[in-house]
Amino acid sequence: MQFNFNHSMGDPVSESNEQLKEFWIPDYILNQDFQPEGCSSDIPECPVIVFVNSKSGGQLGGNLLETYRSLLNTNQVVDLLEQAPDKFLSTLYLNLENLKKKEDDLAIKIQEKLRLVVAGGDGTAGWILGVVCDLKLSHPPPIATMPLGTGNNLPFAFGWGKKNPGTDQPSVKSFLNQVMKAKEMKIDNWHILMRMKIPTEGNCEPIAPLELPHSLNAFHRVSPTDSSNMEGHLTFRGGFWNYFSMGMDAQVSYAFHSERKLNPEKFKNQLVNQSTYAKLGCTQGWFFASLFHPADKNIAQLAKVKTMKKPGGEWEEIHIPHSALFKTGVQKELTPPYVDDGLIEVVGFRDAWHGLVLLAPNGHGTRLAQAKRIRFEFHKGATNHTFMRIDGEPWKQPLPVDDDAVVVEISHHGQVNMLATHDCRAKSIRDPSSLHYSANEDNDDEDDSPAAAGEEWSKFGAASTFRIPDEVDLSHLS
């Protein structure tokens, strides 16, 4: 098929781009400011929007952005340093709704078939997942995560690999073809809330390494009108998809991010990044934690850990071995390996040798518990700060030493659609090949979810700037 349309309108212009017509989206679909004059009526089999964190992977992010833009309509490839994803997707979906009212068949089919590609680290992936969750889109698109960071845990779990990808045209074309063939899976997301009394001295705002990343929309103070706010207390809330960690892993990650932001020229190679990560574990004493980080660094000495196994059930304190540091997360390569069962795994690590499994394909920590909800109650004066990490983004969290009511609570929030290769490690509880498959499995737990508590809890905060215009029919967006 020959394409003869004006390139300024975002259409293919030659047979050289014919093989990518299955992914192409014309400009008038992306934004109402463009006119559909001369656009092809061919319906792409796998229309994609590509989000690239051009700072991820050293120089790779910028190279990848250029390659995608050379193969697709430039306007369907978004540099996250230039445009926020919530603004882009809200513009796109509002335009799609308007075109559907005009019975535009291409717009209808593109909305049904649309897939997202996210190239960046786990923090970038979590940002996009949070935006899609917050916007509550009609036909929310499934998401493929291209590894472009240091850990790349989400891409690895869903079959996209851990190594940073090639940025040449053949590599990008191969990845897009995998996206077209990929299967859809759901993934749980999790709400996290931390509450403490306002300290008499000092500040308890989260301290990020040099600057707050976008994904630390993941953790912020609630507004005075939010139902979770309590007088005389500081309340923070946010969400995550992959893992929340506290202690060793988060502290080393904090040091790594601080060093990388001070000296970005030293962090342009994935293997070098991982080696630096390991060296920081050494310099901070975590490879011999029992010697350099005695009881005051052990989670068992810092807080009580409680779990709730059923919605509306009782809190049960779990035993944390004195040799264990701490991590909790959706470590679905552990047993049972389901990414959509509404359950969270509680995993402990003895030291950094044990914790380096985060960078190892087949490693795992010590599974301590599994629950619908988990709660940490810090002991009074146990420590004046701790390190926390959400999906690859760390921060230092000051704690009031005169307060015995510092609480961190994690609960199930909802689900979003992911794209996975057919041989991926992640497993679904709805997969008929699973021994525990149940077609009637229901994990929504609406009465027990944070969303039931108030409007602010129903969002991650990743798309807080989005507001649906009054003239838009809301029935199309819910």
From TrEMBL:
Q: Which SMART domains match?
A: DAGKa, DAGKc
Q: Which Gene3D superfamilies match?
A: Probable inorganic polyphosphate/atp-NAD kinase, domain 1
MF terms in GO: ATP binding; ATP-dependent diacylglycerol kinase activity
Q: Which Pfam families match?
A: DAGK_acc, DAGK_cat
What cellular component terms from Gene Ontology apply here?
Answer: membrane
Q: PROSITE patterns recorded for this chain?
A: DAGK
InterPro entries, per database record: ATP-NAD_kinase_N (IPR017438), DGK (IPR037607), Diacylglycerol_kin_accessory (IPR000756), Diacylglycerol_kinase_cat_dom (IPR001206), NAD/diacylglycerol_kinase_sf (IPR016064)
Q: What class of enzyme is it?
A: transferase
User: Which Enzyme Commission numbers does its entry carry?
Assistant: 2.7.1.107
Describe the reaction catalysed, as an equation.
Answer: a 1,2-diacyl-sn-glycerol + ATP = a 1,2-diacyl-sn-glycero-3-phosphate + ADP + H(+)
> Which residue intervals define the domain DAGKc in the entry?
43-196
Q: How does this chain assemble?
A: Monomer.
The family annotation for this protein states:
Belongs to the eukaryotic diacylglycerol kinase family.
The record's section on PANTHER family has: DIACYLGLYCEROL KINASE, DIACYLGLYCEROL KINASE 5
Q: What is this protein called?
A: Diacylglycerol kinase
